[in-house]
Amino acid sequence: MKFFAILLLLAVAAALEVGGDALMRNGLHASGIHRLHWLIAGTIVLAAYGIFVNLGPWDFGRVLGIYVVLFFIVAQLVNWLGYGIRPDAPILTGGALICAGGIVLAVWR
Fold first, then answer.
1. pTM beyond 0.70
2. Domain ranges of the chain
């Protein structure tokens, strides 16, 4: 499978995982019937992530670093756009290290 196709599949998986986590978070902070709705939605999305991420024909151990980079980026975007929390200097510095590690795993043969 081509690198960019794998990257796209992993980006979708990261979006599903982060989205499912965000739904669960909303459910844990909601009350009444809304709590149940958020938690059910989170469960469904996280199950979809678990299925989706394991459908690919890749050596997941090899591309895990790239996935972690995508997960980090999507998580920060959701935290910023969804919850209004901008990444601060420690998050950006750690994120740069995560991204550097993903680049090493992607290009080192």
1. yes
2. 3-107
